[in-house]
Design brief:
alpha+beta; five-stranded antiparallel beta sheet; 1 helix; 5 strands; about 40% strand; elongated
Length: about 80
């Protein structure tokens, strides 16, 4: 199963790279597939590549759902 997750662009770097924040965790990714990207934009990332921009409200809803799933999964552990 593949999972693409939302991230906020926090810094633009040379060579089509950027630093993003994934629920507070920073990661360097490629943004070569996206035009007109700005700091504060939200993107969907998968295996180190930004695939598309996403609406900030949709990004927040998705992050909240991932948190809920994580909490439920951890609660199910013995």
């Amino acid at each position: 199963m593949c999972l693409a997750i939302p991230a906020e662009v926090t810094k633009l770097l040379p060579d089509d790279m950027a630093i993003v924040s994934i629920d507070g965790v920073s990661k360097e990714i490629s943004v070569a597939l996206i035009e007109d990207l700005a700091i504060g934009d939200y993107v969907i990332i998968h295996v180190g590549y930004a695939l598309t921009k996403i609406d900030p409200e949709e990004a927040q809803r998705t992050v909240e759902l991932l948190r809920e799933l994580s909490a439920e999964a951890l609660g199910a552990l013995p």
